[in-house]
Amino acid sequence: MATKPDEKIAVLDVKLKQLLITCGRTVSVLESTKDIAINRQIESLQALSKDVEQSRREVELLKITNDEPEDEITTWNAEVEEKLSKADEDIKRLEKWQDEYKQEKESIAREEQFKFEMKLHETKLQLQSEQNTKVLGKQTIGAEKEVAVKLPKLVITKFDGSFTDWNRFWGQFSESIEKSGIANVVKFSYLKELLGDKVRRDVESLPKVIIGQKLYCVRNTGKKARL
Asked: What does the pLDDT average to over 174-195?
């Protein structure tokens, strides 16, 4: 006589009940937003679903062995499958949360990495700028010292306005000061210091034009006077 599947069905019913109870915890587990708890819930549902599936096959085999009607076996299978589907849906929901959580963590990590790299880049630029400023400062100081070294001492004999002395004076002034590369305003200051009182007053009375033009006026006035 064929074995009745009552005992197997009882075991399957217990496993199905445990599966449904576990499914009932899915919502609260999701609301906890705890990755470890959600992962544990997934593992529990997967393990229980596997046990239910194994028991279902055993019961189904006994039903077939006992020559139960095929339509009854199909109906019974559909009822078990419906409960398993509930677990499958919960697993999908939980895995979806995990995927979104993982993507969010990766997005935050990328953003933090981007901020770190930007901060590092800004720091490098700032350090480079400070270094360039120091180098430029040293170069400027060096250039100023070099110019200062090259600037002539005022050893040129003053020009008193004598036409015959103009060539001598302008030759010395031109070679020592005008061609030195210093600013026109400095050249003009040197010039005034090297002029006699009367000549200085004449130069200072020139129209208010830029310094370079005053130097030009003095140079050409001297040439015309010499001629």
From this structure: 79
**43 to 14, 28, 38, 75, 119: CA distances (angstroms):** 19, 16, 9, 29, 42
Band the pLDDT of 219: cuts 50, 70, 90. low
Same domain, 91 and 9: yes
- Residue 30's CATH number: 1.20.58
Give Cβ neighbours of residue 195 (< 8 Å, ≥ 6 apart): 158, 159, 203
- For residue 30, what are its two tokens? 């999701």
Out of 31-35, 54-58, 91-95, 119-123, pick the least confident.
119-123
Alpha-carbon span 217 to 227, nearest angstrom? 15
Domain that holds residue 108: 5-116
**Cα angle: 124, vertex 122, 115; to 5 degrees:** 125
User: What is the distance between the alpha carbons of residues 18 and 26, in angstroms, rounded to a whole number?
Assistant: 13
109 and 187: one domain?
no
Dist CA 171 CA 166 (whole Å): 8
Rounded Cα–Cα distance for residues 135 and 137 (Å): 5
Task: Look up the pTM and report it.
Answer: 0.49
Whether residue 56 contacts residue 80, with contact meaning beta carbons closer than 8 Å, is answered with: yes
Number of domains composing the chain: 2
Same domain? For 220 and 178 the reply is yes
